[in-house]
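agent> Task received from the user: take the single chain below, predict its 3D structure, and emit structure tokens. No templates, no multimer pairing.
agent> Plan: (1) validate residues, (2) run structure prediction, (3) serialize to tokens, (4) report one or two observations.
agent> Step 1 OK, no nonstandard residues flagged.
tool_call: predict_structure(input=
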Amino acid sequence: MKPLILLFKALLLWPIRLIARLVAALEWIGRAVLGAVALGIGVAVVVALLFAWHAAPPAAPVLPSRFVLTLTLDAPLTETPSLETPLPLWDEPQPIHLGTLLTTLDNAAEDPRVAAVALDLSRFPGASYAQLAELRDALGRLRQAGKPVFAFADRYDQKSYFLASVADTVTLDPEGFVLLPGLALEPTYFKAALDRVGITVYAFRAGRYKSFVEPFTRTSMSESEKSAATDLMLGLWGQIRDAIAAARKRPVEAIERYHAAFDEILAAHDGDGAAAAKAQGLVDTLAPFTDWQTQVLTAAQLADRDHDFISWQRYHAAHEAKRLLANGNGEIRVITLEGTITETDDGNDATASSDRLVAELEAARDDDAVRAVVLRIDSPGGSAFAAEAIRRAVRAVRDAGKPVIASFAGVAASGGYWVASAADAIVARPETLTGSIGVFALIPNAAPLMEKLDLTTDGVRTGPFAAPLDPRRPLPDAVRRALDASVGHTYRRFLAVVSEGRGIPQAELEPVAEGRVWLGTAAAKLGLVDRLGGLETAIALARERANAPDAEVHWPTSSLAPREVVRRLIFGSETSALAPPLAWLTAPLRPLAPLLRSLTEPTTALPPVWAHCLCVAP
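)
tool_result: status=success, residues=618
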């Protein structure tokens, strides 16, 4: 009888359980749908708030009558104004726009409410030396205006110390150290590895120093490249060393010894890096962060830690609100060319598309409020075709009667210099890497790999230029000759463009071209640059050429599609302060980018010719 009862219960309960599970499933689906709808509504609200926040005039923050301006540099410096978000999904530092920071510091120099400046470099991720030198100059102007600058870091690497050294007082945590290791340039060479797997690379270049192709065609640095690289590294290190020595009032020999004999100096202080740095005169005091803050407040004759430190972002917001209300004197439009030059905009923060740059230059040309343009360049180059398109747009702005001043940041080489050659004048930092007037093309050949894998191809072609770049077979001789001619023509065009724009006869230009990279100081002597200076020098020159001394400076922000706004809100951007976990591993592979791009080009056409420099601003 009991088995029958159990069977009856099972038959009775089974549909009930099934219905319960169905109800639970429907409830889960309903919650998921409601959650998705809620998420969609939430994202829509965030995007709406974001655009409303950018469109609405900002309210000016109220500042105290006297305060310490705080510069906490805990995010990468960028040349392009970044999209700021009023509702970040996590507490990630936003990239710092260098132009905005420089403007803020210059405003502070004239503001009697600013009693002192506190520079916190404990989490500073670094920048190019040209950018750091511009910041040093701005801090120097603050000091000249009677605003003492106090610097602090848990530990100073070479870049953070280069910036901090200009301060009145440099403080280091007692457990910290100061490193001045110098500079190194050691590319990764891929030829042997590619040979091992059965891939060869056809390289076509114009310019003896055009070293971008060397990692694919050699296993070591060529003598010509080693000579040029030695001049660059020694020249830049000399500028860094001398600037530190002058700021700290130390002999150059003392800084050089700290650089070359750090092990001996450290051993003399029983391995205590902080004590060694203080003994060598690199820092003034040893103190933890909170004690440093107290010292700054005491020096500024202030006492309230919670209210007397004002962040530079808050200070800038107060000035920006007033500037927007007072603007009416015309503007100097600053347009940024940052990253590898490409033809189309792929949404990557690390590229500068000719489509976008041409549109921005045309908008500046047609805007009656724009009196002059400063073209801020931080680029190693890229597509020669795209560079020429941007150069023509620069020329069109000049033809409309508006001066164009090119301002070089850390690197403005190859395609970056191609663009700049059309400007009325070029301003570069002494630390800028520039020149690299040369071009190349790279074609991969996987025929040896095909043979290793016993893979074959067969078929018919109407001629050697039918699918000329098929990596499965060696490059036909006719295609090689065509590529040689194309690269040679592009190089001659590069020379002609620079000769015309800079007013240098080609016979004088050719010896300084050949793909060689120059420091800004050398470029000025060679006539490739008109004036040494930073962004403020370029802006002053633009005002002078436009006869508009009161024109406001304006950096347009690039418009983003709503889906790109959402992507950046959720995932961040390529300029995120958080580096990818494997960045250290992928960094040596970055030179492969043009080679990989050539693999994706249609095989029915010749490859693009690159005006690109194998140089990253140190």
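agent> Step 4: summary for the user.
Residues 408 and 428 are 5 Å apart (CA to CA).
agent> Done.
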